[in-house]
Amino acid sequence: MDGVLSVVEQQPYKVISDINGIQIRDYPASVYAQVSLNENPDRVGRKAFTPLIRYVSSNSIPMTAPVVQEADGEGWNFSFVMPAGSKASDLTQPSDSQVTIRVAPAHRAAATTWSGFWKYSEVNKRCDAMLEQLAEIGYQAVDEPRWARYDPPWKPWFIRRQEVIIPILKL
Length: 171
Known about the structure:
Order of helices and strands: EEEEHEEEEEHEEE
Largest sheet: 10 strands, antiparallel
Shape: globular
Distance between the termini: 33 Å
Helix content: 10-25%
């Protein structure tokens, strides 16, 4: 955790290597509470946040980081990572039909980190550059990129941690 403003559990991962600013990580299986919307990618988080925070708050589930957004066909999935060790079968079924529980299998991924605002145009630019770099070092994307935000909105924008995370396979 970095500094006083980070007071939430972060999704665990193990760094395997760091190549030119791209971390290769192993993620354990994880559980997500998720809302799917067909919406402008810069606005999905605002609209999905309320049902998700209502779900975790009403079930006394601690807030974790990051919150994650990823493309899904024509829309977007916006998710809260459940605390480490959570099992989907142990979680209360959401009463709001917008919220679903999803299990993500253990996987290897590449990640790049920066500080600043989260905007789709910035995320897309970083994702494209990262995919080129991954190809150059012998990796291939095997799933959609996800965009991770680690900090609350009241944290100064210039020190907010943002990431692009791409599930990968070594060629």
